[in-house]
């Protein structure tokens, strides 16, 4: 982006910048969007230049936020995890993510793309195929209001991300004919490029066989009380990224691997111990017994009690049949 273009954008942004956000009167640290004239309904873009030592207090928003570092150095702390940023780096935050940032170099220039949740209520979501990004937006919108999962994309000279970001920014501020539709198209193209970049990162992943084995062993040993988020935190990965790595290397999802591990241990305990089905269910991580019965019947095509009676290695087991749900 040329200095002339930046000057053009700066003139517009300086006029509106102070009006973009207002602190919520009811929720400390929360910001909400103010309706401003001359902007699209669902997408807002602004930028600001910071000097070394400037801080942005911890806060969260009610929208998606894409931050792009044009120049300088800074670090963002997102949900307690600090992400150093260099020029060309991108972070994508959801409505429940909290973040702050610290500036480490004078004249640090950051662009911020605000994406309102209402954008995904229409057809925009379906422009994206079943990729990391579509899953990310879907989970952020519909799975849990407290889900805290962000994505980060280091700069790459081999991708078209920089070019698309600059087209998006210039189109937004120039406001030519049909600019609102064009901005949405550029944003969609940007997400496609980020998804491609993410796939390439997976294919070139530095996760070696030894660490993957360590992760799988950890899942097996802690099957009773783990989640994808807890495993990701243990191994210092973004949950979405870890999920993709597991799928890429094993052909199975995290949930499938966890369920298989639980079912295999349940089968072992049924064959080799007199432990009740209720206790086995709790031991392997099913605190709803009916859920365990459904999963077991789906995998082994029989109830846990029938499996024990057929496969038991314990002379005493199977003598006291247990009442089991039909489904």
Automatic annotation (TrEMBL):
Annotated region described as Disordered, given as residue ranges: 303-327
GO molecular function: DNA-binding transcription factor activity; sequence-specific DNA binding
Domain of life (superkingdom): Archaea
Domain named HTH araC/xylS-type: residues: 213-310
Keyword ATP-binding: no
Keyword NAD: no
PROSITE patterns attached to this UniProt entry: HTH_ARAC_FAMILY_2
Name the record gives this protein: AraC-like DNA-binding protein
Organism: Methanimicrococcus blatticola
């Amino acid at each position: 982006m040329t200095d002339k273009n930046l000057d053009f954008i700066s003139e517009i942004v300086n006029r509106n910048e102070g009006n973009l956000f207002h602190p919520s009167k009811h929720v400390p640290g929360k910001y909400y969007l103010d309706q401003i004239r001359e902007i699209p309904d669902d997408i807002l873009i602004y930028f600001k230049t910071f000097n070394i030592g400037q801080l942005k207090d911890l806060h969260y928003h009610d929208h998606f936020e894409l931050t792009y570092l044009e120049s300088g150095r800074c670090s963002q702390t997102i949900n307690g995890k600090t992400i150093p940023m260099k020029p060309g780096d991108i972070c994508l935050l959801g409505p429940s993510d909290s973040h702050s940032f610290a500036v480490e170099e004078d004249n640090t220039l950051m662009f911020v793309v605000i994406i309102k949740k209402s954008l995904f209520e229409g057809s925009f979501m379906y422009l994206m195929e079943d990729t990391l990004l579509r899953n990310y937006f879907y989970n952020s919108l519909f799975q849990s209001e407290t889900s805290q999962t962000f994505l980060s994309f280091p700069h790459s000279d081999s991708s078209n991300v920089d070019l698309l970001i600059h087209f998006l920014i210039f189109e937004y501020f120039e406001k030519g004919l049909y600019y609102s539709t064009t901005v949405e198209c550029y944003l969609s193209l940007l997400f496609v490029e980020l998804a491609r970049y993410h796939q390439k990162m997976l294919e070139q992943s530095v996760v070696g066989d030894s660490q993957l084995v360590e992760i799988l062993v950890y899942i097996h040993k802690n099957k009773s009380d783990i989640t994808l988020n807890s495993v990701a935190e243990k191994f210092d990965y973004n949950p979405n990224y870890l999920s993709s790595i597991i799928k890429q290397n094993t052909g199975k999802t995290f949930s499938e691997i966890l369920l298989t591990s639980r079912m295999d241990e349940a089968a072992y305990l049924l064959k080799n111990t007199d432990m009740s089905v209720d206790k086995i269910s709790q031991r392997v991580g099913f605190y709803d017994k009916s859920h365990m019965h459904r999963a077991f019947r789906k995998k082994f095509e029989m109830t846990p009690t029938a499996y024990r009676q057929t496969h038991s290695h314990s002379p005493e087991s199977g003598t006291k049949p247990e009442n089991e749900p039909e489904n």
